[in-house]
Design goal:
With 131 residues, this protein is of the alpha+beta class. It contains three helices and six strands; from the N terminus they run E-H-E-E-H-E-E-E-H.
């Protein structure tokens, strides 16, 4: 199965910390969505937006076990949906409507993720492969 990552999981070292192994990915885009900042956090969410486009990374060959770890990582605020990404379909973690209040109205850009934020994510989620 495929995963489209648009936030912290775009960095392979963060994905590896969550699922326990490294995957390589390729740039791709999700149409019909926009990427927004989460209030008080360093990571984004995506929500539907007519005409929107979100750049990210498309990963392939994820297992059901990988998605169990990702579901836990993303939490109840997100819904895993199968959406068209480029020329294929992939799992995308979309902000649940009931959690829309956590999203700001301002866009989030990958360059806003500072090295110390990445290091904190890696440290927090390392070892989840044992779930």
């Amino acid at each position: 199965m495929k995963l489209f990552a648009y936030g912290t999981l775009m960095w392979p070292e963060v994905l590896e910390a969550v699922i326990g192994h490294r995957l390589s990915g390729a740039p791709d885009a999700l149409l019909g969505y926009c990427r927004l900042r989460v209030r008080g956090e360093h990571y984004p969410v995506v929500v539907p937006e007519e005409g929107g486009r979100v750049e990210g990374i498309l990963y392939d060959n994820l297992s059901e076990s990988d998605f169990r770890h990702l579901d836990h990582f993303e939490g109840e605020e997100y819904e895993r949906k199968i959406l068209k990404v480029g020329e294929t379909e992939a799992a995308v973690y979309v902000l649940s409507d009931r959690w829309r209040h956590i999203a700001e109205d301002s866009a989030w850009h990958p360059e806003q993720m500072l090295p110390q934020h990445l290091a904190a994510f890696q440290a927090e989620y390392k070892g989840w492969k044992d779930l």
